[in-house]
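User: Fold this; tokens only.

Assistant: Input:
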Amino acid sequence: MTTKEAKEILLDGFKHSEETREYFYLKKAKESGCPDSVFFKALINAYNQVEKYLNLLDYSGICCFDDGTEGYQKINNITIQNGNLSWQLTHEELPELLPTLLSLGKKIDEKASAKNSPGTQAPQQILKSFDSTMTDEQIKKLFSELQSNNIKFIHPETNLKQFTAIFKAEAKENIKPVKWLKYKPQLFYLLNGLIDKNLLTKPENLYKYIDVCFVDKTGEHFKYFKQSYNTLKNITDFNCRYSDVINELLTKVISL
């Protein structure tokens, strides 16, 4: 199944209600002749690609992609074109497909792991904040740049003690998450920059630590965070707005 075909099937899910969408995808899987796991992987890849395009289009206005798909921003919605077909989407609408995709993935995983031992131990939950090599002076500078810059990244109500705690490997119960005012790509870009400059120890599951330490601007945990992280974890200057501002503040921090 091609990328275009997977994208068409994925977005055609919007033509179905939440109750019938899973049946539609299963029917398409059978018609495709692909194994369930291959079909599901193709849908997830299509979802991640569309989500990435939406993040790009949020800032670019118009974009053409390697597979021939085009996208452009129009007032408050975004049109994804796939050949002669098109879908009007917003950032809020795309995640409506995730519950169905996650349900499909769970069923496929359960089927594949049925022969495994039922007593497999679940991974240990991460219960602490980031482990940083930054000095107190560097943390204070990072706090100041993120909060007092012309482009503000963290909420004005954040205090230095609260901010410092997220870089001191503190227990989860001692952490008050910081409100992040921009989008997830900027947060991933900042943390990746700290890791690249050896100011932050890279944890095994970065997105779990982020979920402990940061919330969105409304104070809510980021939705579908793991899926977004898998899409954007290698985000670059090219597709991250404010990357120049973040690079400049990181330079100031590392110079101390």
